[in-house]
Amino acid sequence: MLLHELSDRQILVKLGGFIKTTRLLQNRTQEHIAELAGVNRSTIVQIENGNGSTMLSFIQVLRALELLHLFECFQVKPIISPLLLAKQDLEKRKRARGKRQLKSKKPPSDW
């Protein structure tokens, strides 16, 4: 499936179909998901029909369906260049140095 060839409306319909299929596979009613998500049942109907909804409502429904892991693909992972890694490795300490003993200018004690 080439998602970039679909219109925005077609993508909404596909997302709604995904939500509906997942809900049915979990054997949950629209009312139950709406209650778990904290939204109206009509919001679930709108999402499932591809009529759109707010991003917040969509996230609430995904949370109710235990599908928040789908957002893991949106995490940005830092990329460290091999050259920077090698430079950092060279800058690591190779040995420890003991504390320097300061020579005391006080005369030795009589005790």
Please give a structural write-up.
The protein is mainly alpha-helical and 111 residues long. The chain has a domain at 14-64: Orthogonal Bundle (434 Repressor (Amino-terminal Domain)). It is 48% helix and 0% strand. The termini are far apart.
List keywords for this structure.
111 residues; mainly alpha; 434 Repressor (Amino-terminal Domain)
Terminal-residue CA separation: 91 Å
Fourth CATH level, the homologous superfamily of the domain at 14-64:
lambda repressor-like DNA-binding domains
| Counted beta strands | 0
Number of helices: 5
Strand content: under 5%
The major sheet is characterized as: none
Please state the structural category: mainly alpha
The coarse overall form would be elongated
The CATH topology assignment of the domain at 14-64 is 434 Repressor (Amino-terminal Domain)
Amount of helix: 40-55%
Mean pLDDT: 88
Assembly of the depicted chains: single chain
- Round the Cα radius of gyration to an integer and report it: 30 Å
The arrangement of helices and strands along the chain is: HHHHH
Give start-end ranges of low-pLDDT stretches.
Answer: none
CATH class membership of the domain at 14-64: Mainly Alpha
Q: What is the correct CATH architecture of the domain at 14-64?
A: Orthogonal Bundle
How does the SSE layout of this entry go?
Layout: H1 8-25, H2 30-37, H3 41-48, H4 55-64, H5 82-90
Helix pairs in contact: 2-3, 2-4
Question: Gist?
Answer:
The chain is mainly α and 111 residues long.
